[in-house]
């Protein structure tokens, strides 16, 4: 038996196929930051489809689950680091992270099972289009199911290549669709027929060629005649002691000292909960901060908890000086910012008793935050941490804005891949909405980027630092802002409809 035959023989051996899929899923993070091995975005789906199709539904389910376990086991391994940040025991951290990844792996299990079941019922192979479209549909489900897990969406890899030109046109799901259709066409090349090779070559050439042609196209216009200096502060507060009142003054003094290095900046942005207490708990500091910002004709904006009515409180952002308004985080992170099944889980382990883990979600329609500069009122689009992972929410915030501001606390991620992945995700949001972005994080990665997602200034991780750059706020609508993901959804429906019609005709 030659080598090729041995490789094809693996498809029918259950455990070798499952292990291959486990390692295939575990390789997914290599596509994204900090590795950027984008050709794998075509190769890995091909392996998934090759080893899960033409299988009994039960076996397809298990194979998909093994792929999903590898995907999330390596892709969101930062969940383990988040638990260890607050000294959750290693065994409990491993068990809870493993359970989380296994549960998420069910999405790929169902994605593999569904076409196998349909094939069994129809007693004929499904059209190749079924598989890319299903993958995209499950990306949408993963983004919205329960609180959503929009991490490592396939189209995010478009930040650092010619596919970047598609992001402000179609959004991240459009780029996902282009990649998955390309992978599906490459998968068809296994038929060893030139008629299957030519469509793949033509589609890939069109995808990348058009992306290259529009990659530097502006859909938005400058809001100011001259660039505006902005700064971002990285206080590098240890997460384990951040909420300790004994060091509160030290934390505040560090941020003030770093901000004082940027007296000429029009905007100085501090990280998520950089002020780790309610503003009414430190009224003297807040008055001094307001006075400092006004004396410099400057806006200082910081993340901090905000009180609501009664015992309600929010994870928020507030502006002083030439900045005005506040924002309350809408999309909260389970277990980090609120505790599901609180009466059952609270008290079991320290991770379920975190300070400030009882935030309420902010309302959807909040007054815009603004910044006065050069005689103009600039509208700010605020996002807090994980909110930047949601394309739809980011688009809604950016509509009518001039500048994206993101505050985050990536200290939870420790030394994992997550800070680099999170940065790439936020860069995709800047490109989709074609707005410059100022991003301040607690211990990295703090950056300032332009409307094309190119980093203009970056602070090193795990140090106290501040950065400054000149940006040009922009206004107007990108095609993605104008239409959202509706064109992609319509295209998916049309492709699915044409596929069904073709199948019906071939049957007759």
TrEMBL record:
One Pfam family per UniProt: CN_hydrolase
Highest taxon of the lineage: Bacteria
Membrane topology type: Multi-pass membrane protein
Principal subcellular localization: membrane
Broad enzyme group: transferase
Alphabetized UniProt keyword annotations: Acyltransferase, Cell membrane, Membrane, Transferase, Transmembrane, Transmembrane helix
Compartments, as annotated in UniProt: Cell membrane
Signal peptide bounds: none
Pathway membership, UniProt: Protein modification; lipoprotein biosynthesis (N-acyl transfer)
Family: Belongs to the CN hydrolase family. Apolipoprotein N-acyltransferase subfamily.
Role played: Catalyzes the phospholipid dependent N-acylation of the N-terminal cysteine of apolipoprotein, the last step in lipoprotein maturation.
Name this polypeptide is given: Apolipoprotein N-acyltransferase
Lineage: Bacteria, Pseudomonadati, Pseudomonadota, Gammaproteobacteria, Oceanospirillales
Gene, per the UniProt record: lnt
């Amino acid at each position: 038996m030659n080598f090729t035959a041995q490789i094809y023989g693996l498809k029918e051996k259950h455990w070798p196929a499952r292990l291959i899929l486990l390692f295939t899923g575990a390789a997914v993070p290599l596509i994204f930051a900090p590795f950027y091995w984008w050709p794998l975005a075509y190769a890995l789906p091909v392996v998934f489809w090759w080893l899960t199709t033409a299988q009994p539904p039960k076996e397809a389910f298990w194979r998909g689950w093994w792929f999903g376990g590898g995907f999330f086991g390596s892709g969101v391994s930062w969940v383990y680091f988040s638990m260890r940040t607050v000294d959750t025991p290693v065994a409990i951290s491993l068990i809870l992270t493993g359970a989380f990844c296994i549960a998420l792996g069910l999405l790929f299990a169902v994605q593999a099972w569904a076409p196998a079941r349909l094939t069994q019922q129809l007693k004929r192979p499904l059209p190749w289009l079924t598989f890319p479209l299903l993958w995209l549909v499950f990306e949408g489900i993963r983004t919205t199911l329960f609180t959503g897990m929009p991490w490592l969406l396939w189209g995010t890899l478009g930040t650092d290549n010619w596919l970047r030109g598609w992001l402000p046109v179609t959004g991240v799901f459009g780029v996902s669709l282009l990649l998955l259709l390309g992978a599906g066409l490459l998968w068809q090349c296994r038929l060893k027929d030139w008629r299957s090779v030519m469509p793949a070559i033509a589609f890939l050439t069109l995808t990348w060629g058009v992306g290259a042609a529009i990659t530097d196209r502006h859909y938005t216009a400058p809001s100011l005649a001259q660039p505006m200096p902005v700064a971002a502060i990285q206080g590098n507060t240890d997460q384990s002691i951040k909420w300790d009142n004994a060091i509160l003054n030290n934390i505040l003094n560090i941020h003030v000292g770093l901000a004082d290095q940027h007296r000429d900046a029009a905007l100085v942005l501090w990280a998520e909960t950089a002020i780790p207490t309610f503003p009414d708990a430190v009224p003297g500091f807040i008055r001094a901060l307001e006075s400092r910002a006004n004396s410099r004709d400057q806006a200082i904006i910081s993340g901090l908890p905000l009180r609501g009515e009664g015992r309600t409180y929010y994870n928020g952002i507030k502006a002083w000086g030439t900045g005005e308004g506040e924002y309350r985080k809408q999309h909260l992170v389970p277990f980090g910012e609120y505790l599901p099944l609180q009466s059952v889980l609270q008290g079991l382990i320290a991770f379920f008793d975190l300070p400030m883990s009882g935030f309420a979600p902010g309302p959807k329609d909040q007054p815009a935050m603004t910044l006065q500069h050069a005689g103009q009122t600039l509208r700010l689009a605020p996002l807090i941490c994980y909110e930047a992972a949601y394309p739809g929410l980011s688009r809604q915030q950016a509509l009518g804005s001039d500048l994206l501001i993101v505050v985050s606390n990536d200290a939870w991620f420790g030394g994992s891949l997550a800070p680099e992945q999170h940065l790439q995700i936020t860069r995709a949001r800047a490109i989709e909405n074609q707005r410059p972005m100022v991003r301040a994080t607690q211990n990295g990665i703090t950056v300032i980027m332009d409307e094309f997602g190119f980093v203009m200034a970056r602070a090193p991780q795990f140090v106290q630092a501040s950065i400054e750059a000149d940006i040009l706020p922009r206004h107007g609508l990108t095609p993605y802002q104008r239409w959202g993901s509706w064109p992609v959804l319509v295209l998916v429906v049309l492709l699915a409809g044409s596929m069904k019609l073709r199948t019906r005709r071939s049957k007759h």
